[in-house]
């Protein structure tokens, strides 16, 4: 009779789940990379003072350089004896206010921030005024000139549903699909020329939201007709869509698990 | 018959009036000082490329290091032939979005940003939540813990009217008065724990708003009773008031001329 493999040590009998907000300005994105400052990098270093190394994080949204988060979710294996409130206090003391742990809890080890996520919501903010705004310049794309609100809304509608988003994605790994299901795609005007675009999907491919926003702004400027969006989707060609909106206007808003 | 003094040259027959917004985070205040970065310093350098040097600015509010402005007003002598829109475009291209010229116009030379100002309004923002907010940390004071809204409002009322604010001012030049007339002193809650204190007066003495806010927060925490504010004013002693709230929550909101 062969020996059964040992159960994982008690050290990883649970998962630590963190709800994170961060200002992405001074990070080269979420995912750890050698020799550059990333959110995962600073978070892992701080967690390794409290958890058995190496700490391996899973995240719901792999935000790019300069992209912010209000509702990022990350998980990592953790002992059931860990006090999540102590972890939250320690992380916020070390990393706040640039990276803030909004909530921390222990969850079942089958839960995974990435694989258990059912939907992600991103928010893109635009300031449509003649002059930029010093207080929003880190968190919103300044778009001067005329931007037709009706055209913005009409152009946002065709994205809803299941589509191949190849026209709105940078190429991923060979063989990976660019089919995604968008649940909602809406604009909201806050006044003072501040416009918010909220989009929710099961998942997003690389630079998809920024690419959609670039095309929407082209529609608002009258350079693309809302009726053309369906055709741009159908071409499944990155060259068919407009410019990619800058990273600093984008924020990973919420994740549904 | 003695000669009449010559009229000023045509070069200064008018004034340039700028309405400015700036993020004060990386400035050592408005007023130019040797060897440090100030708003007046960068603005004067940029203006001296367009106007006869030396450029001498007058400003409505001498904001301290780290204090922001949405509605700062500055003036300087300028030729009547100057195109203010060209100045605005050039300044915004050089200094934006950290310093933004919201409007630029030529005005009569008797107008002066400082001496013609009839009232200044400052806004102080507080985030009253358990955890800090990465997107508001540059522009709001994070105050965790309980903060009673009713006590905040009751404590703000006694500041209205003409008072000697010696208890709420750092000492100015010898012989200068600390008597000021406060026109309004109000709190507004924006939701999500964001609180705004708006105060308008004919003028403010040094660190007066931050000193008032420090005492108001003490009242909200139950450390000072609203009824004590009148007595603190009457003592005319800096030691009678509470801590000075941090600079980064303060913004020069508007100036009435």
Overall description:
The structure is a homodimer of 257-residue chains. Chain A is α+β, with helices and mostly antiparallel strands and 257 residues long. Chain A is built from 5 helices and 10 strands. In chain A, strand 2 and strand 3 form a beta hairpin. At the A-B interface, strand 4 of A face strand 4 of B.
Outline of this structure?
2 copies of one chain form a homodimer. Chain A is an alpha+beta fold.
What pattern of helices and strands is seen along the backbone of chain A?
EHEEHEEEHEEEHHE
How many strand segments of chain A? 10
Strand content of chain A: 25-35%
Rg of chain A is: 20 Å
Assembly state (oligomeric): homodimer
Q: Name the largest protein-protein interface in this structure.
A: A-B, 22 and 21 residues
Distance from first to last alpha carbon of chain A: 41 Å
Summarize the main sheet of chain A.
Answer: 10 strands, mixed
Poorly predicted segments of chain A: none
Structural class of chain A: alpha+beta
Which keywords apply here?
257 residues, 29% strand
Topology:
Two copies of one chain form a homodimer.
Chain A: E1 14-22, H1 39-47, E2 58-59, E3 68-78, H2 84-95, E4 99-108, E5 119-127, E6 141-142, H3 149-156, E7 161-164, E8 179-191, E9 194-201, H4 208-220, H5 229-235, E10 250-256
Parallel strand pairs in A: 3-10, 5-6
Antiparallel strand pairs in A: 1-3, 1-4, 2-3, 5-9, 5-10, 7-8, 8-9
Helix pairs in contact in A: 1-2, 3-4
């Amino acid at each position: 009779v062969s020996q059964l493999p040992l159960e994982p040590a008690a050290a990883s009998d649970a998962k630590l789940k963190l709800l994170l907000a961060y200002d992405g300005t001074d990070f080269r994105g979420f995912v750890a990379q050698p020799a550059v400052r990333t959110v995962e990098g600073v978070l892992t270093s701080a967690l390794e003072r409290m958890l058995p190394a190496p700490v391996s994080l899973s995240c719901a949204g792999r935000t790019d350089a300069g992209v912010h988060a209000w509702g990022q979710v990350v998980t990592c294996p953790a002992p059931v004896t860990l006090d999540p409130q102590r972890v939250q206090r320690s992380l916020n003391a070390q990393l706040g206010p640039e990276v803030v742990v909004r909530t921390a809890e222990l969850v079942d080890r089958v839960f995974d921030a990435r694989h258990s996520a059912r939907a992600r919501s991103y928010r893109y903010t635009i300031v449509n005024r003649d002059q930029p705004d010093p207080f929003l310049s880190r968190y919103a794309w300044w778009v001067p000139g005329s931007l037709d609100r009706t055209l913005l809304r009409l152009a946002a509608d065709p994205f809803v549903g299941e589509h191949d988003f190849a026209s709105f994605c940078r190429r991923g790994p060979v063989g990976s699909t660019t089919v995604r299901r968008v649940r909602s795609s809406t604009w909201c005007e806050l006044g003072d020329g501040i416009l918010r675009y909220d989009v929710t999907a099961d998942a997003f491919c690389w630079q998809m939201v920024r690419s959609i926003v670039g095309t929407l702004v082209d529609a608002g400027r009258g350079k693309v007709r809302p009726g053309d969006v369906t055709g741009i989707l159908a071409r499944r060609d990155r060259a068919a869509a407009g410019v990619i909106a800058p990273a600093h206007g984008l924020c990973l808003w919420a994740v549904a698990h």
